[in-house]
Structure formats: C-alpha cells, structure tokens
Amino acid sequence: MTTSKLFIDYFMQYVKTRLQYRSDFFVQMVTDIMFQTVNLVFILVVFNHTTHLSSWSREEVIFIYGYFLVPFSIFAAFFNLWEFNERYIIKGELDRVLTRPVHSLFQVMMETMTPESLSGALTGMAVMGWASWEMDLQFHWYDPLLFLLFALGGAAIYGGLYIMLTSISLFSDSKTDIQPIMYNVGNYGRYPIDIYNKVIQIVLTWLMPFAFVGFYPASFLLHDDRWLTFAMLTPVMGFLWFALGIMVWNLGIKNYRGAGS
Amino acid sequence: MLEKYVELMRLRFLMMLAYRVNYYSGIIIYSLNIGVYYFLWMAIYGDQTSINGTTAVQMATYVAVAWMSRAFYFNNLDREIAQEIRDGTVAVQLIRPYSYLLGKGFQGLGEGIFRLLLFSVPGMIIVSLVFPIHLPSDMSQWGWFAISLFLGFIINTQLNVLTGLMAFFILNNMGMIRAKRVIIDLLSGLVIPITFFPEWAKNILVYLPFQGISYVPSSILAKGISLTEVISFLEVQLIWTVLLWVPIRLLWLSARRRLVVQGG
Prior knowledge:
The structure holds 2 protein chains of 2 kinds. In chain A, helix 11 runs antiparallel to helix 12 (228-255). Chain A is globular. By secondary structure, chain A is an all-alpha fold. Chain A has helices at residues 2-20, 22-46, 58-78, 84-90, 93-98, 104-112, 119-135, 143-171, 178-185, 198-207, 215-221, 228-255; strands at residues 52-53, 56-57. Chain A is built from 12 helices and 2 strands. The two termini of chain A are 36 Å apart. In chain A, a hairpin with a 2-residue loop joins strand 1 (52-53) and strand 2 (56-57). By secondary structure, chain B is mainly alpha-helical. Chain B has one domain (3-257). Chain B contains 12 helices and 2 strands, in the order H-H-E-E-H-H-H-H-H-H-H-H-H-H. In chain B, strand 1 (50-51) and strand 2 form a beta hairpin. At the A-B interface, helix 2, strand 1, helix 9 and helix 10 of A face helix 2 and helix 8 of B. Chain A: InterPro entries: ABC-2_transporter-like (IPR010390). Chain A: It holds the Pfam family ABC2_membrane_6. Chain A: It comes from Marininema halotolerans. Chain A: This is ABC-2 type transport system permease protein.
C-alpha cells in the first residue's frame, strides 16, 4: 500500500522535473528511437545478402527483435542505474537514501527511473505486429497472457543482472565500466540461438541468460516448440535472477562504508 | 611542451593498471563479442563462400581485427567531459597550464595504448588460434594498418570530445552519448563492413567520418587491398582529422563563454 503510494508520489515528482527540462525529455525520446532503428537496420542490411539465418527467415528474426524490445524497455524504464557509482557512491547520495525507512534499492530505482523509455515497448509491439501480419501468424487465446509473463520475466532477468553489476560499486568504490559494455552483450539474446556454438549457447542461457530476454520466449510465440522448456522457464529465471540481484545488493549495503567526506 | 601531455598519458596508463575488474571483464566481453559476431556472420554466409567479393575467411578476420581495434580506439572521454562540465570541475581544469581538450586526448591515448598492449595483442594471438582467420604476413601491410588505426583513434576521439562538449548546451546529454555509441558501432563498419550496405547508403557513408574509425583500418588488414587504395583511404582519414577540428574549436570557444557551473 505505502509502496504504491510512494511510487505515485515519485512519479509525480518525476513528471515535474521532466517538465522543467523539456529539451532533455525530447532528446531522450529521439535517442531511444534512434537506438531501436539502428538495430533494425542491422537485420535489414544483413538480409540483403541472405534469405535465411540458419533456418530463420527475415520476418522471424524481425519478430524476435520486436519481442526483445518489450522486456528491454520495461527494464530500461526502471533500472536506469548507469550513473549509480558517480551519483550515489562518489557524491555520497546513498547516505541520504540509507537514512530513510524504505528499501534502498526501491528508492534508487524510483529516483532514476525514465518511464518515457516504455515507448520502446510500443515500438516493439508494432514491429511484432508487422512481422506476424507478414507471416500470417495465428495466436492462441493464451499467447498474450504468456507474452506478458515472458516480458516481465525477461525484464526481471535483465534487472537482476544489472542490480548485481551495480552492487559491485558497493563493495569497491573504484570505477567500473562494465555496465555500458554489458549493453552490447545484452543484445545477443535476440538472434536465434542455434546459430552459435555450444559454448556461447551455454553462456547466453545460464551465465548471462540474455537468450531468455529475446530468443527463447519469442521462438515459442512463433510456434516453434524446440525450445519450449526454456521458454517456460523464463518467468522462473526472472524470479531467480532478480532475487539473486537483491541478495547481492543487500549484502553490498551491509558492506558499504561510504566513500569519505 | 609535450612532456606535460606525455605525463598525463602515462598517468592514465597506470590508472588503468589499477582497475583490474575492468580489465578482466573486458576480456570476457570482447571474446563474447568476437564469438557472437563470428557465428552470426558465418550463419549469414551459410553455404555461400563469398559475398560482395569478401570471402568467409576475410569476414572472420575482419570481425576479429575490428573488435580488437575497437579496444584501442574506444574511450569514455565523452562521458568524462560531460561529467566534468556538469559537476563544475571543468572550471578547475581550465586554469591548469595545459590545453584541456588536448590533455583529454592524451589521456584517451594512454587508455588506448594500455588496452592495445595488454589486451588486443594477446587477444589477437588467442583468437587466431581459435577461429580460422588469416592475417597478412607482409610487414608493410601491418605498418599501413598501424597508421590507419591511429588516425581512426583521432577521429573517434574528436567525435567523443564533440559529444562531451554538448553538455555545455544540453544539461543532460547522457542519452545522446549512448546513442552516439550505437551509431558509431553501426556506421563505422564495426558490425557491418561498409561494402555490405545497400548502394544508396554506401554513397552517403563515404562522405561521413565514421568509416575512418573502424572500416578503413580493419579492411586494410583483413582484405589485403592495393597500395593506391590504401593511400586514398588514409587521405580520407587525414582530411577528417583536420575537418573535425573546426567544430570542436567553435564549440569550445562558444562554450567557454557560456560556462554555467551547476551548483558548487
């Protein structure tokens, strides 16, 4: 109850600051759209030179990409932890957060959220819609429900992983550039996993489970049952990784000593 | 005159040595990048042995060289400059007895040399053992590659400085910095060699500075192009390093006039 009330208050606060810096809002929207088109361009250019990627057609790969955008933008909207190290550790804002009676991670997430990134989910669904129309794809009545569950699971996997990476700053106050690099790697889950060799497949499934954010659930929605078990595991993996992220965070908070001054 | 800058470069090199987490994670991430793009391109090739006059082996070599070069030319100067503008430390930097921007450039170079020596060179040896790639044995080709790679570094650094300086005009330019990174990865030829773009896009891309960052040096090493072509490539790169100096200079002059330190 208090949590949802706090969320609304934070959101109102956010709207106010956004209205203050209107050009920032505009720039964020434009860069989000740019980011999404650049990745689509890659797929389109590549399919100029081949008809199939392994056994996957152009429309199927585009569908997977569209699906990927949905969990990804949910993640991008609420886990905007890029500047955590600079803002909360080096500048010491975490000390302020820790004196308040609400979970520290919740506060940090609320203070850094960018709800306008959710527009990416609309783009993603439009891309999926176009691709399934092209392929004449039929959906079952339960597909939208599973889609929602998969998307939330995928966002949770991403979130858990990024919380863990961000928590590194709580253990050592040295700068790390891991997060931006991870941004690249996070994209690899949106290509059909059977084009990679075993090692990379294992990495993308268990170590950095990005295949759950894109390919596995999308292949299920494309009525390909070869990865059925993995697709169904998506919400479970989401829960596990998110829980793991919060555990590491809590451990880090216990360990946190402040960066001085 | 130059010693000051060399010292800045040396300090950055030593600083990089201190951040081991970055180093180890970088190795994992770059191996994954090369692996993923290798298999992606091999899937694109499928049964075809050659696309657009590029053989599968040349493509694999291109992927490896392009990513290992990225380790050298890549830096976070845009973020650094934006950060310093926003928290006001740029004011302190401005009164120091060296050019702020040139100092930044040399720091980026220190970072690049660190990764080149401790990362790209050993990485390249491992990659050439794991993947079927073909590197030239002709030393002159390596020489041209080195020159071209350095020019690519300058172009990329200039673009980073430009993006960073935008923080003077847009108070929060983090989104722009991220978008720039993605655009450079695409348009520089890192993820798709310029020759693979459709004709109309190619005609635009040859007039943009991005190809000089990744496509030019990587093709010199991976595809074994003729000397006249190499020379014309280097000319294009050289022209861009000079041209990009103009907007930086203009932005810097007008920025210093309107310097508003937020807080502090």
